[in-house]
Amino acid sequence: MFFLIATPQSGRFQYRSVLEALTTIATTEGPRGLFRGLSATLARDAPFSGLYLLFYTQAKQVAMRATQTDTLAPSLMFSCGVVAGLASSIITQPADVVKTSVQTGTLPNSTGLLPTISSIYQTRGLRAMFAGIAPRVTRRTLMAAFTWAFYEQILLLVDSRFH
């Protein structure tokens, strides 16, 4: 079976398997290459998760007040997830652009977070920090909304079985 392994936003790398990707990276860049972009990924994902939870919780509270109920229908939970995903994805988009640039090494002299941010801004301007926002927002929003709606339904099911 043929797989393409890459940073989806870049389209730069095409490996046939995870093993091939790991071997190639370790051989050409050394073991350190396997961790390229870890700090950039953490700088994107930690805020995304915190913001998502904050926005999701707030959206759920608003929806429960509006419907005057303690539990929401799955469609409303999903809608709260969409709102939270949109807001979180938009806010963390610049960090995603930086992460992708660090991991792909597409910018000259960008070996860390601050040099990469500086290079993106100097070479492409502030608008570049929002490059690729539509696909990322769509993917992250739908994925997170589905996951949280599913999680909430499982909690309700478990709660109803044991109480």
TrEMBL record:
GO molecular function: glycine transmembrane transporter activity
Keyword line: Membrane, Transmembrane, Transport
Gene3D superfamilies hit by this protein: Mitochondrial carrier domain (1.50.40.10)
Repeat (Solcar) residue spans along the chain: 1-62, 72-157
Cellular component GO terms, alphabetical: membrane; mitochondrion
Coarse class of the protein's main subcellular location: membrane
A single BP term in Gene Ontology: glycine import into mitochondrion
One protein family per Pfam: Mito_carr
Protein localization: Membrane
SUPFAM superfamilies for the chain: Mitochondrial carrier (SSF103506)
Similarity field: Belongs to the mitochondrial carrier (TC 2.A.29) family.
Protein name: Mitochondrial glycine transporter
